[in-house]
Structures are given as C-alpha cells and as structure tokens.
Amino acid sequence: MKRAAFALTVAGLIAALPASAAIDIVVNGVDDTIASNVRATLSLSSYAAAEVVNDQRVRQLFASAEGEASEALQAYGFYNPEIETHLESVGDDWKATIDIVPGPPVILQEIVVEVVGPGQNHPEFLSLIENPLLRPGNRLIHADYENTKRELNRIANEFGFVEGSFSRNRLEVDPVKNIANAFITYATGPRYFFGDLQIEQDVIDEDLLRRYLRFSEGDPYDSKLLLSSTNILFDTGFFSTIDVVPLRAVAADDSVPIRVTAVAGKKHRWGLGFGYASDTAERISAAWTNRRVNRRGHSLLATVRYSSLTTIGRASYAIPVGDPALERLTLSFATIEDEPGDIKSNRYELGSTLTQIFGPWQRIIDLFVIDEDSDFGSSTQQDTFIVPGIGFSRTHSDNKLRPTRGFRVQSKLSGSHTALGASASFTRIETRARILIPLGSRNSLLLRGESGAILTGSFSNMSASQRFFAGGDNSIRGYSYKSLSPRDQDNQRIGGRYLATGSIEFTRRLFNNWGAAIFTDGGNAFDSLDDDFEASVGLGVRLFSPVGKISVDIAQSVTDSDSSKQLHISIGPDL
User: Fold this and answer.
1) 232-255 residue pLDDT tens
2) At what angle do helices 32-41 and 65-74 cross, to 10 degrees?
3) By CB neighbour count within 10 A (0-12 exposed, 13-18 middle, 19+ buried), where does 562 fall?
4) How far apart are CA 419 and CA 424, in angstroms?
5) Which candidate, 286, 308, 287, 310, places its Cα nearest to that of 299?
6) What is the pTM of this model?
C-alpha cells in the first residue's frame, strides 16, 4: 500500500508540471541561407530549445515574428517583403510557419571604397580594393559592407598603420527606389615600425634569441612576423611558454616596442618504444635528449635501437648556425650491427651534417667516415672510407600527424673514391616518394615508390652498407626485412646494384578512429634489369591514435609460393 501511495504521489507531481513540447519553425519562400538567418533572428528560436514550453509564452514570442523576420531580410537587401505567419498546435508540439515573398531586392548603385594616406599603395589594401565585396549592380548584403570595414581595420592593424581610422563610413538605403549607395574612406596614417626589443628570459643567449626572430628593430611592422617568430621559438624546445607581444599602448615616434618573454622548458626528455614484426621480431628503442646543453642552443640526442637483425647506438650533437631556424650543424657517432640478406655488417660512423631549409625544400650536406667489417659468408671485407653526400627532401601535407592529402619526396646523391679509402670508387643515387590522395571523405589512396642505383666499375668490392636490399614493412611487405636481393654462387643474398619498389594501398575509414586497408607491393633489389620482380598483396587494420597512425598488416607473396605470411606493425603518419 505504501508503494502504491508513493507512486500515485509522484504521478500527481509529474502531471502538475508544464508539458514538454517542441517548436518546429518553418520558413518558406527564400533560400536556405536567408531562411537560417530568419530562424536565428526569431526570439521564438531561443525558446524552442527550452525543456519545458509555456503555451502563453509561445504565443507572445510568435507575435513579434513578423517584425523580426522583416529585419532579418533587410540584412540580405530585401526591404519590402510580404510576410505571413501562422501558428498551430500539433498535439503537445507547436508549428510556426513563416511564408515570405521577399519582393524586389535593394541594388547597390554607387560604391566608393578608398584608402588614403601613406598606406594607400600597400599591396594588401590594393588587393582589397581591386577585389571588392561590394560591387555596383549587386544585391545589397549588409555583411559585405561590414566585412569590408572589418578587413580594412585588419590590414591596418596587421601591418602597423596604428593610427588608421574611417574618415567616411556611410551606407545609404532608399527602400522606396530599392537602391543603395556605400561610401567608405579609410585614412591609414603613417606606417609604424618595430621599435625597441624588450627581452625577458634567462634561457639562451640574447644574441641567439634575436637570430630566431623574423624581424629586427626598424623593420616595417607586420604582425604575421610576430606570430611566425613565436612559433619558431616554441619549436626550438627551449621554452615551455613564449610570448612575442607588441606594446601598441606605448607606441611613439612611429615605432611599436616589442616585448619577448619566455620561460624555460624541460631540459631533458626521455623516450621508450616497443614493437613487433615477423621480420625483425621484437623491437626496442630508447632515447634521451638534452635540449639545452648550454646557453648557445646546443643539444644532445642519444638513441639505442635493438631488434633481432639490427642494433644501433647513436649520439648526435646539434649546433644552430647561420639563421638558427633554418640551419643546423650536427656531429654524430654511431655503432651499427646489421644483417641485411645473408650479410653481416658491423660498422662505426663518424659524421657531420649541415641541414638547411630553402622555402619548402630541405637540403642536407653530409660527410661520413665509415669503418666497416662486411661478412659475406664465404669471404669478409674491411673498409675504412670517407663518403660525402648531398640530399634534398620536401614534405607537403594538410596535417603533420593525421594527413589526408599530401606528398613527400627524398633524394640523395653520395659516393666515394679509392683515394678516400674506399675499396671501389662509386656513386650512389637513391630516391623515395609517397603521395597520399583522398578519395571522398572516408577513403584514401597511398602511392609509394623507391629507386636506387650504384655506379661503379667494381661492385663486388662494395661494402655491405652501400648495397641495396628490398623487403619489410617499408618496402615489399610479403617478404621479411631486407630479404630480397641477388645471390652469389653460394646462394647467399649479398645485395644488389639497383633497387626499384612500388606500393598501392587503399584505406577505408570504418568507424571512430578505425580503418581497414588493402594493398599490393612489388619490386626487387637486383643487378640487372632482366632480373625478376617480386610482388605481394595484403590486408591491414589502421588505428588513428593521438600518437599517430598504428598499422597492422598481414601480407603474402604472390610470386613465391614457398613464402610464408608476414606480419608487420608500424607507427607513424603516411607521410
């Protein structure tokens, strides 16, 4: 009985509450853009989102719908519309219908948009005037008028016309004749320059920080240079916070002082990674970075990578040179144990690398001293030689971590001579390219290619590290790591003179951050163009995670019936 009484009480309280209802607003007679603006202007629209709707309040708000709709239409140049409104209840809900005959639009007749003063010939102002939003003969749209004024102010603020203002700003509308005239005159005043630089930080030398900035005292003011300077300083890794702020309030004598404040970031950074693939079994890596060895911006990176086939230990010391945002000299030492094909290579590398950025391109000039022992099974070879090289690369994408379109191309030319200690004089050329093409909103096509050639008169004397091999998760996935190459008289895989591989991969996003892929890879490392190419096909699963794309692939050779399926796991973006 108590439960029944409680239930009846709750039911009575619910019945006493105002009924929950929905309000459907229908706008007829105009295009979707204008209809959306009408709905957004109506007071009734804000009330439509309420959880509980009061009938009397609905009728009160609907009474102002005609006037509000008329005002919304004026924003699009319709000053003489015919509007009929109708409100009806549909069960517990409401339906408000607004039928509109917009009538003849107001047409722009005389348009004057001009910039006067010292900045009148600035390219940004000229571009706005030559490509106006307001044109004679067009329908009046108030947003175009306001956006023109807003854009004039933006340009002035961005390029240092601090005293800029409107000396004339008038929109004349004749709703009887349905015509309008617009007059905008912007007086720029003098262009200001970058003034005194106030630097507040104790992280790196002030001279080095100034070299990172994209402007100098006395340069014409440009706010985009402030933003790019902020981004460049943040990307150094030296700072946890960085602010490059114009002090417009104290601007004087046609100059704007700039204040740079920075707080040191974490000096040390550690990283640890694990992975597995059928070609290399377990893979373990560890890295330590000292981002600021000293106040001159030097940094130190130490890495160790281990797998069943490759062990690499490397230390790199980077020094900013020239323009530190675009140029870096790196000194490195590495010890590498590798087993490509049936060769064992143990080597030490001492190198210097100059990295330079030219527009969208990166150029790398390097010089390595290599001491290498190559075990070919039936013979061994010891080399100590110097290898100079030059390489170029370019990457373009719409997103670094999760690109949906773009490309990446890399090319390197290197070589040595017997006079530099090499057992055989040689020239080595290698090129890699990737292209990511979107196919609609959920599909993508990844094309990948790699080619290489060694020009030498004595290939048999080439050390193991300079030869070409194919196979693995970044090559032909139906084969294990560096398992494809020409063989010697003992049937040992000893690496090739040439390399050519290609891949086509189709990916479909399924749900949330998951996707599926189907692919085919082909190519080989070979000594002659008459050698056979190998090919494989496979399926994969893709997880688009916060740390990048995680790929799990299973591939099978279609040219070698004796080969087994290969499992590949990799982490990283397509480009």
Assistant:
1) 999 999 999 999 999 988 988 899
2) 130
3) exposed
4) 10
5) 287
6) 0.79
